[in-house]
């Protein structure tokens, strides 16, 4: 097996693992948010889902659209960056409601 083929297979395996495990964690966070009605957990689940989808969408773009490496990384970043922004937002508590 050539080095290029080995690298392609390794990339496929790692990307698949990242998407599967990321999806499982995002799903568990979403279920917890639904169970507890927690806005922070809801934002956490959305952020984790976006971070997990980044590599999947990038890989699909590379395969289906023939994107080069730089474009694939851009597509991934367009999902991963907002995902991390949602993760950061989920860590800050909601402001206390004003009582009259």
Automatic annotation (TrEMBL):
Pfam families with a match to the protein in the record: DUF7521 (PF24365)
UniProt entry keywords in alphabetical sequence: Membrane, Transmembrane, Transmembrane helix
Name of the protein this chain belongs to: Oxidoreductase
Species of origin? Halosimplex litoreum
List membrane-spanning regions: 6-31, 43-67, 73-92
Keyword Transmembrane helix assigned: yes
């Amino acid at each position: 097996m050539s080095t290029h083929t080995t690298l392609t297979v390794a990339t496929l395996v790692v990307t698949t693992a990242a998407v599967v495990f990321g999806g499982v964690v995002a799903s568990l966070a979403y279920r917890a948010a639904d169970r507890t009605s927690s806005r922070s957990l809801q934002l956490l689940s959305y952020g984790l889902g976006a971070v997990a989808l980044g590599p999947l969408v990038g890989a699909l773009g590379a395969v289906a659209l023939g994107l080069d490496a730089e474009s694939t990384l851009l597509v991934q970043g367009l999902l991963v960056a907002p995902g991390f922004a949602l993760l950061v937002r989920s860590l800050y508590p909601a402001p206390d409601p004003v009582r009259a």
